[in-house]
């Protein structure tokens, strides 16, 4: 399709690099009225460069100067096909044909790398301009920013417009995750674009950080009313089928209220492993690595009542009902939290940021565990027994205790409460071992004995949940 390519490669590289440089300067100068003359001058140079490419490669190679301009503009500016067609007054079918012809020419002569290099030539400046130098310094710890194998997605842009670029190894999302209309869909799309161990860099703002920097926070009583309404609208409405439509119609899905646990949990559920997280000026910046395909879980812990995956009798995985005391998607972060902080003396993950503010109260007074009675009626749990645990926690239990556990149904009231022991890991495990061994010796009376002892300790000794 393109004649005398070897003699024109350097010329095309120069064209693309100049093209990107000028396009970026024009964009950056759009908000400055004093730079009107400079913008006109840059635009004039841009037209001359485009004509120069056409003279080098002949207009017939791409059908026309206008086709080259439209296709290249669409790639550089990252606008949707619909927007391009509306602006230029052409059909999507015609645009697709032009775009296919253009990209085929680049692919046939390996010039797609030249285009990628041109697009990435200003990555450092783009990142610093949009999210700051500290964020750039954090990002460059994980990838070579100037590599042609990186894909930088600017603010208000979508990944699908970059589907033609093959061989992408790392992706940087400049816009905050809070502004993604469909968060999991975006992460799943990134996952499909990256190779195994490919790196995703991005950022998000928690609602706690947002509230702290909000000017209304300085007005004590008014701020409580405002943030209460905002929480209701941006956290509760999206979970309700009818009100969800109103929420997305009004906000377009932008500026969503997110917690650290929910954002990182969504990442893990979409096949990523969290490498590092750093807070800079109230914004959380993360580096994540693709380790598997997404789980496509349509039923995460999003509502007040949810089911936890727990190990039951004979190793069967059961769904144990519970009132939610953690942020949504927290169940995906257990490995991450344990790697960061290990276990506390209570036998639960230490410094667990996944807990919601009211979670500790619900746990302390056993309120969060009342829905487990549903599992008792279903025959999956007993009133008394070793507490149901996750697969991850089960792996850390001594092998002899694992065998004892698998021979019995888990229970609602744990043995350490009946025996008035501490909630530390060792105490809990020892109590469970004593109970399970006694249960084997006295299968009919053990549960009754432990149940009444537990009730006595809770009522008269004020025994509380760990």
What's the rounded overall pLDDT mean? 79
Number of distinct beta strands: 9
What proportion of the residues form beta strands (DSSP E)? Answer: 5-15%
User: What coarse outline follows from CA principal-axis ratios?
Assistant: elongated
Instruction: List segments where confidence is low: pLDDT < 50 over at least 5 consecutive residues.
Output: 1-9, 24-39, 49-64
Main-sheet strand order equals: 1-2-3-5-4
Order of helices and strands: HHHHHHHHEEHEHHHHEEEEHHHEHHEHHH
Radius of gyration: 29 Å
Distance between the termini: 72 Å
What class do helices, strands and sheet pairing give? alpha/beta
User: If helices are DSSP runs of H or I spanning 4 or more residues, what is the number of helices?
Assistant: 21
Helix content: 40-55%
């Amino acid at each position: 399709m393109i004649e005398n390519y070897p003699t024109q490669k350097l010329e095309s590289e120069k064209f693309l690099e100049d093209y990107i440089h000028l396009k970026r300067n024009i964009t950056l100068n759009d908000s400055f009225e004093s730079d009107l003359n400079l913008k006109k001058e840059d635009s004039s140079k841009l037209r001359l460069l485009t004509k120069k490419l056409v003279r080098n490669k002949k207009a017939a190679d791409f059908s026309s100067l206008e086709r080259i301009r439209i296709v290249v503009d669409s790639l550089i500016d990252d606008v949707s096909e619909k927007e391009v067609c509306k602006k230029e007054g052409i059909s999507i079918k015609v645009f697709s044909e032009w775009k296919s012809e253009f990209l085929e020419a680049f692919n046939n002569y390996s010039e797609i790398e030249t285009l990628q290099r041109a697009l990435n030539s200003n990555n450092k400046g783009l990142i610093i301009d949009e999210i700051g130098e500290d964020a750039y310094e954090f990002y460059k710890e994980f990838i070579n920013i100037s590599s042609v194998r990186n894909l930088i997605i600017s603010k208000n842009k979508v990944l699908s417009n970059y589907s033609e670029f093959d061989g992408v190894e790392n992706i940087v999302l400049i816009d905050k995750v809070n502004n993604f209309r469909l968060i999991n869909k975006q992460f799943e799309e990134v996952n499909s674009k990256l190779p195994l161990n490919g790196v995703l860099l991005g950022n998000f703002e928690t609602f706690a950080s947002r509230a702290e920097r909000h000017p209304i926070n300085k007005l004590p009583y008014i701020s409580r009313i405002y943030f209460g309404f905002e929480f209701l609208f941006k956290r509760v409405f999206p979970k309700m089928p009818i009100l969800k439509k109103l929420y997305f119609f009004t906000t377009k899905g932008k500026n969503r209220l997110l917690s650290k646990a929910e954002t990182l949990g969504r990442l893990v559920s979409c096949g990523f492993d969290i490498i590092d997280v750093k807070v800079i000026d109230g914004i959380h910046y993360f580096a994540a690595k693709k380790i598997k395909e997404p789980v496509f879980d349509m039923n995460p812990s999003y509502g007040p009542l949810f089911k936890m995956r727990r190990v039951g009798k004979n190793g069967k995985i059961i769904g144990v009902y519970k009132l939610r005391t953690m942020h949504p998607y927290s169940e995906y972060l257990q490995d991450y939290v344990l790697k960061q902080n290990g276990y506390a003396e209570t036998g639960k993950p230490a410094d667990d940021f996944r807990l919601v503010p009211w979670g500790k109260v619900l746990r302390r007074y056993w309120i969060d565990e009342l829905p487990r009675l549903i599992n008792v009626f279903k025959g999956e749990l007993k009133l008394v027994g070793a507490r149901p645990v996750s697969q991850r926690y089960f792996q850390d239990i001594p092998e002899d205790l694992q065998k004892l556990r698998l021979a019995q149904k888990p229970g609602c009231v744990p043995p350490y409460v009946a025996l008035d022991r501490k909630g530390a890991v060792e105490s809990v495990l020892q109590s469970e071992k004593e109970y399970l061994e006694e249960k084997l010796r006295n299968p009919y009376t053990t549960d009754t004995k432990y149940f009444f002892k537990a009730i006595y300790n809770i009522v008269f000794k004020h025994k509380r949940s760990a």
